[in-house]
Design a protein that fits this description.
Blueprint (H helix, E strand, L loop, with lengths): L1 H9 L6 H4 L16 E4 L1 E2 L4 E4 L10 E4 L7 H8 L2 H10 L1 E3 L3 E3 L2 H5 L10 H12 L4 H16 L4 H20 L1
Antiparallel strand pairs: 1-3, 1-4, 2-6, 5-6
């Protein structure tokens, strides 16, 4: 361990700001347990919610997602990506120059997520669709009818209204 710390000292790591202000430069404070997922606080086209399959820890660019008892992470991620939730992300969040959307934890908690419990096989299909998408509109086109139509009982017209409202809000944000 002494050899490993010596390498850091050779690179002057103890003199860098974050290490310099610590009692022991090599002790990283506030390491919490690995979260189930991350929600990245800033985004461009749509908010990013990612399952933590690598066992990574949270940085200051993401929030850790810990779900209540009985809520499945796969089902939550599946349920998150719909026009209702993403429209409210545009409404609740704030935006900065260049069209960057930011959501704080309190804004994230306000987002309506019509939770649907799905099985692992269906989630794997969803992940494959998500990975192969051209854009988020493709995913919304497939899954809005399930999440908002079948589950919430919204009509095609209501879903299209949410979709077009979200598009208008994104266009407005991108012009800033």
């Amino acid at each position: 361990m002494k050899e490993y710390l010596k390498v850091g000292e050779d690179y002057s790591i103890p003199d860098r700001y974050k290490c310099k202000i610590r009692n022991n430069w090599y002790v990283i404070p506030n390491i919490a347990k690995e979260p189930e997922a991350f929600f990245f606080k800033r985004c461009h086209k749509y908010p990013k919610l990612l399952k933590n399959e690598s066992g990574a820890f949270v940085t200051d660019s993401a929030y850790k997602i810990e779900l209540k008892e009985g809520i499945d992470i796969n089902s939550f991620i599946f349920s998150f990506y719909n026009s209702l939730t993403l429209t409210f992300a545009e409404i609740e969040g704030r935006y900065y120059g260049g069209g960057v959307l930011e959501l704080t934890p309190s804004e994230f908690r306000k987002l309506p997520v019509p939770y649907i419990n799905i099985d692992k096989l269906y989630f794997n299909k969803y992940v494959k669709d998500f990975e192969n998408k051209v854009n988020i509109e493709q995913i919304l086109g497939i899954y809005d009818s399930i999440i908002l139509g079948e589950y919430l009982g919204l009509s095609i017209e209501e879903i299209e209204f949410l979709h077009s409202t979200r598009q208008k809000l994104i266009t407005k944000r991108m012009r800033k």
